[in-house]
Amino acid sequence: MRRLTKKKALSLVRELDAFPKVPECYVESSTSGGTVSLIAFTLMAALALLEFFVYRDTWMKYEYEVDKDFSSKLRINVDITVAMRCQYIGADVLDLAETMVASDGLKYEPVNFEQSPRQRLWHMTLLHIQERLRVEHSLQDVLFKTAIKAPPLAQPQSEDSSSSHSACRIHGHLYVNKVAGNFHITVGKSIPHPRGHAHLAALVSHDSYNFSHRIDHLSFGEEIPGIISPLDGTEKISADANHMFQYFITIVPTKLNTYKVSAETHQYSVTEQDRVINHAAGSHGVSGIFMKYDISSLMVRVTEQHMPLWQFLVRLCGIIGGIFSTTGMLHNMVGFLVDVICCRFQMGMYKHLKEAPLNEQTNSETPAATENYVE
Fold this sequence. Notes:
By secondary structure, the chain is α+β, with helices and mostly antiparallel strands.
């Protein structure tokens, strides 16, 4: 009984076979079929290799959500060189709540404003990258992928050891409240007082004013090597002593999660404006460099993603099966058309050959019949 049940089960499975085997005596190989097979296999291999490269690649996924973190501090990373002596200028932050932030984290280093050949090469490279980033927006994804968790890269230092430095490099970082504020560099050291703050600018001669500056780096949040901010490499040269440079910055909190780094940083966009201070012409203000920033209420979550293995296998099967079926259909169709055309030609030739012997036979029989008729 069990044997009968087993035989019925095997026969049922055999009937459900969707891939029947064709006897070898029914299979006929041809030169055209072999050529098409070679082309199909080559195409399969090439597309499968390209699909493997796609599987190895990753892409960045952007998600937007409301930033609910209001209590944490915002870090400002600064590296700016101003064409004035360090004792003549001061840098600080005044936020929207009229709270002055101490600039203890900033260092004032006397340097020369003119760059060495090595520094100029670094600066020109940075400007070239910024130009390409404005044109090719997808390069930002490449920078996110190459970002690493490591100490920031140091800028090339000047090789001039002269003591007569005419510029001041302000670098370091500040921690401010997550509200709109104004980071500024102007004449004189800042002095806090109950109503705000002031700068001792009366002791500095107007002839010493020169707010030509170069921004080597300006970022917000955690400093990540490999990420280039929009103002990195900016250089402004002023021909007038009383000049105001303004940068209006909109900061977007960003959570970056890649296979190399996981960090909370900030992206920003900037609008620039500068003008000469001339009270007689109605252009009022204070000479200096002013960076007014505001923080967006939206947060961007950037995540590096990879194609799942099952999706890669499905796409690979689709490529192989699709090419195999398509080339088989094309081969059969071309073979059918060739057979039809060749058969027509053969039928035409056969008809011509068939009519020719009949005409010869008729011509050979006519004289004999005439002779018989004369006799």
